[in-house]
Write a structure and sequence with these properties.
InterPro entries: UCP012641, Zinc-ribbon_6_bact. It holds the Pfam family Zn_ribbon_DZR_6. The protein has eight helices and eleven strands. The protein is of the alpha+beta class and 365 residues long. It has a domain of 147 residues. A hairpin with a 5-residue loop joins strand 1 and strand 2. Helix 1 crosses helix 3. The chain is globular. The chain starts with a strand and ends in a 22-residue tail after the last helix. The C terminus is likely disordered. The protein binds zinc ion (3 copies). The site of one zinc ion (ZN) has 8 residues, from loops. The site of one zinc ion has 9 residues, from loops.
Length: 365
């Protein structure tokens, strides 16, 4: 993600509600894909000034700013249905019991991760700030099961996607649960953001692949998704890792079924896009994006991943990027990259990373 700065010059972050330095309020504007610093006024109005100070912009903030979601987004000015919540909040269909304190924190973390995932989709032009058809049918159910709340009527919530509805087990927002699941499943990487990026991959499979003329190209790269899904998952959970999975898949789970291979690879693509953009923004990489430069982009990613690993080892922390990408997996990432580039709907040219800001600017960036 690119860097953002308050009008006072202080660096501020994507999910911040206000600047710690000057106390100006901050909002994220999905239409401009930037953070603005300014002032909240009555009636959910937000006032921001242009860099020169000559122009004043008035925006409507998302009502969930004052709820558990602590959402800092504005409601798009193009929004036709007069919604009082933003593009991201509008997709939440079910929340857990908010009378429980732990669920308030979970919802905050879930919505934060969802907004980050959504911002990347906006950057890649996969969704429009207006929402509309670009998020057609997309809904999220945040559910808890008996393991985290004995009063819950659901025995076991499995995160997943079905016809646009994404279910996330809210316990995944608990550090402890996440860690236990990671151990139990023998995974090297498990994060809340990773869940969102994986599940939205299933949603985009329906949008970008499940249309006439696209299936064959997909099957050549990922295999035939018509293989029995239930059988495949059962086999995966019964028998565990496939032999030499690493030469063909990004994770062992990706080897369970072509649908899961797609979602795991898609999530990985979003990890790479966001992290490389962050590295460029902070001057850790000098990569400058060009059109159709997948090989350059991929090579730069390798260097950045190495730096991340070295930094973490210096602090005695686990490797942040426990992946190795084979030629086969690289081909799958290239397939996704080409598909994303050709699917961008908005007019300005798609770029995988924003240019590096040379110095903090006095206004919002
Ligand atoms: Zn400030
Ligand atoms: Zn919102
Ligand atoms: Zn999946």
């Amino acid at each position: 993600m690119k860097r953002f700065f308050c009008q006072c010059g202080q660096e501020v972050f994507f999910n911040n509600l206000y600047c710690n330095q000057c106390a100006r309020d901050l909002v994220y504007d999905p239409s401009a894909r930037t953070l603005w610093s300014g002032e909240l006024r009555k009636g959910y109005q937000f006032y921001a000034h242009s860099n020169s100070g000559k122009n004043q912009y008035v925006m409507k903030i998302c009502k969930n700013r004052f709820k558990e979601a602590a959402c800092n987004w504005v409601v798009s000015s193009f929004d036709e249905d007069g919604s009082s919540v933003c593009l991201s909040c509008r997709t939440t269909q079910t929340e857990p019991d908010l009378k429980l304190r732990k669920n308030k924190k979970r919802v905050r973390l879930l919505e934060m991760a969802k907004r980050r995932m959504m911002a990347a989709l906006l950057d890649l032009k996969l969704i429009s700030p207006m929402g509309g058809d670009s998020i057609k049918g997309l809904k999220f159910d945040f559910l808890e099961d008996k393991r985290s709340n004995p009063k819950s009527e659901i025995e076991h919530v499995l995160s997943g996607h079905y016809q646009g509805l994404i279910t996330i087990n809210v316990a995944e927002a608990d550090e402890g649960f996440l860690h236990v699941m990671k151990e139990q499943m023998g995974e090297k990487y498990r994060t809340l953001l990773g869940h969102f990026r994986h599940e939205i991959g299933h949603y985009f499979w329906c949008r970008l692949i499940d249309i006439p003329g696209r299936h064959d190209a997909f099957r050549q790269v990922f295999g035939d998704e018509r293989a029995d899904y239930g059988e495949a998952l059962k086999k995966y959970y019964d028998m565990g890792l496939q032999n030499r999975w690493m030469s063909r898949f990004i994770t062992p789970y990706a080897g369970s079924h072509p649908h899961e291979d797609w979602a795991e690879t898609w999530a990985h693509y979003l990890h790479m896009v966001d992290t490389l953009e962050t590295a460029v923004s902070y001057g850790l990489s000098v990569y400058e994006p060009k059109k159709n430069d997948f090989d350059d982009w991929f090579a730069e990613w390798g260097k950045v991943a190495q730096v991340m690993t070295a930094l973490n080892r210096s602090l005695g922390l686990m490797d942040p990027y426990p992946f190795s990408i084979s030629e086969v997996v690289k081909g799958k990432l290239r397939f996704i990259d080409e598909l994303v580039e050709s699917s961008g709907k908005l007019p300005d040219n798609f770029k995988k990373t924003a240019p590096t800001p040379t110095a903090p600017k006095p206004a919002s960036q």
